[in-house]
Amino acid sequence: MPKHKSLKRFLILRYKYISQKNYVYLLCIVVGLMVGLASVALKNITFAIEKVLEQGIVVSENQLYFILPFIGLFLVYLFRKYLIRSELVPSVPSFLKRAIPSLLYSLLRQKGLLSYKLIYHPLILAPLTVGFGGSVGLLGPAITSGSALSSNLSRLLHVDKKTRTLLIACATAGAMASMFKSPIAGIVFAIEVFSLDLTFVSLLPLLIASICSILTSYFFLGDEVLFNFSVSDNFSISDTPFYIILGIGTGIASLYFTKIYFAIYAFFDRFKTRFVKLLVGGLAIGIMLYFIPPLYGEGLSFTRDLFSGDYLSALGANPFDQYLNNVWVVIVLLLGFSLFKVIAMTTTFAAGGVGGVIVPTMVMGSALGNVIAKTLNSLGLGLTVSEANFTLVGMAGLIAGVIHAPLTAIFLIAEITGGYALFVPLMITVAISYMITKNYMEHTIYTRELAERGDLLTHDRDKNVLTLMRLESVIERNFIPLHPKMTFGEMLHEGVSKSTRNLFPVTDSDNQFLGIILLDDIRELLFDQKLYDTTFVEDYLHNPPNVINFDEDSMQTVMDKFQSSGAWNLPVLKNGKYDGFVSKSKLLTAYRRQLINFNK
C-alpha cells in the first residue's frame, strides 16, 4: 500500500510539473541505463562460464565439445520445465517465440505488454546456451531483457501504447549500442526493424537511450571496441569489381542462410517433445564442434583472428592441421565453417537454446569475405585484395542480406571497427547483397512467419493500418439466413418482410454457405402470387462475387477482394461455415478511423 501511494503521489507531481515530452526523455534515460546494465551482465556471465570451461576443453583435447552443448541445453531445459513452468509469452504461437519476431508480434497484437519474467530469464538462459557452446549470439537476449524492462516500466508508470512502443525501440537501440559500442547503428536498427517514422519525435529518444546505454558499457567494460582494427589498405576505384563480387557472394550466402534456417526448424518440428529435440540437437552440435571448434559460442574470437591474419588460431585444432600450409585447404575449411555456422546456430535454437542471430551472421560473413579474398589472391592472376578489408565488409554484406537492414549493416561495421574509411566498399557490397536477397525473398527470418499471418508492420503506412485492423470488428451478422427448400412465399414472409437488409445468405441445416439472394433479383416477382408455392429459394440463389475466409484472409486480402470483385458486401466463412458479411462502407469507415488513431 505505501508503494502504491508513493507511486500515485509521483504521478500526480509528474502531471503537475513535468511535460509529456520531458517525461519521455527522462524515461529514455532510465531505459538506456537499465538496458546497459542488462547487456553488461549478460556479457560478463557468459564470459565467466566460458572461462571456467575453457581449461577443461584444453585438457580433454576437445573431447568435451561432444558433451558441453548438450549439458548447456539440458540446463536450459530443466530451468524452463521446473522453474518457469509456463510459456514466457503464452498467447504468442510457438513458432514466434524467438526474440525479435515475438517482440514485433507483441507490439502489434498485445500493445507491447511483456511478462516481467522476460527481464531475467534471458540473463540466465542465454549464458547457459552460449557459455556451453551454443553457436548463437547475445544481442537477441539483451534486446528481449531490455524490452521487457521498458514494457514493465511503462506499465508501472501508466504510459500509453505509443510511448511504450517508443521505449521498447529505445531498449533495442540501447542493447545494440551497449553490446557493440555502436550508438548510431543501434538507432538505425531500431528504426529499420520496428518501422518507426524517422522524425525528431522518435529520433531524439532513441539517441538519448543509446547514449546512456553506451556510457554504462564504457563505465563497466572500458573503451575497447569490439574489434581492434585499423584500415591499412585504403579503397581505390580499381577495387570496385572485387567488392561487387563480394556483394554477389554475400547475397547468395544470405539466401542460403535463410533457407537453411527454416529447413532446420521444419526438421525439428517433426519431434514431438522438447527433450527429443534437445537430445538430437545437443548431439549434432557436439559433433560439429569437435570437427569445427570455431563454431563454439558466438565466434567473435574467430573473426578477430581473421582480422589479424592468424587463420591457424581462427581454425583451431582440427583433423586437417597437417594440411594447413596449403592455402586451398584453408579456403575449403573457412568455406566449410561458413556453411556450418548457420546450421549450428539454427540447431541450437531448434533444440531449445536461447540466443541471437546477428552475431553469428557477422561471424559467418567474416569467414565468407575472407574466403573470397583468399580465392582472388590465390588464382594466379596477379590480383591483390586486402583480406582484412574483405573480412570486415563481408560481415556487413551478410547482415544486410539476412535481416534486410542495409543501413544497420553499414553503420554497425563502421562503428565496431572505429572508423569510416571503408564506407564506399561497405555501401557497394551491402547494396548488392540487399538487392539480391530482397528480390528473391520479400521477408527475413524475423518477419516471414509474421507476414504469412498478416501480423507484420512495415514502413508502408497504408499496409500498417490494414494490419492493425481486425476482421472480427467489421463483420456484420444482422442478416436473415434463408434455406434452399423454403418456398418463395416463406422467403417473403420469414425473410424479406422482417429484414432491413437487401441481401440474404442461403445456408443448409449445418450452416454451410450455399449462396446469396439479392432483393434486386426478386423485386419484380414480389407480387406474383403464382410463384409463392411453386418456386423455392434454391431457384433464385447464386454465388457471390467472392468470399472472405476468416481463418486465412488478412485485411489486405479482404480489401483486394472488394477491389477486384466490385462488390459492396462479401460473405465471411469461418471453418467453412457462414459467419456474416463485411460491407465495403463499414470496412472503409473502420479504415479511416484506424488511420486517424495511427497518426495521433
Automatic annotation (TrEMBL):
Database matches in InterPro entries: CBS_dom (IPR000644), CBS_dom_sf (IPR046342), Cl-channel_core (IPR014743), ClC (IPR001807), ClC-type_chloride_channel (IPR050368)
Transmembrane region(s): 23-42, 62-79, 118-144, 164-191, 198-221, 241-268, 275-296, 323-342, 349-372, 392-413, 420-437
Membrane topology: Multi-pass membrane protein
GO CC terms: chloride channel complex
Domain CBS residues, every copy: 475-534
The keyword Repeat is annotated on this UniProt entry: no
Domain of life: Bacteria
UniProtKB keywords: CBS domain, Chloride, Chloride channel, Ion channel, Ion transport, Membrane, Transmembrane, Transmembrane helix, Transport
Pfam families: CBS, Voltage_CLC
Annotated compartments: Membrane
Record's keyword annotation contains Transport: yes
Subcellular location, principal: membrane
Molecular-function GO terms, alphabetical: chloride channel activity
Protein name: Chloride channel protein
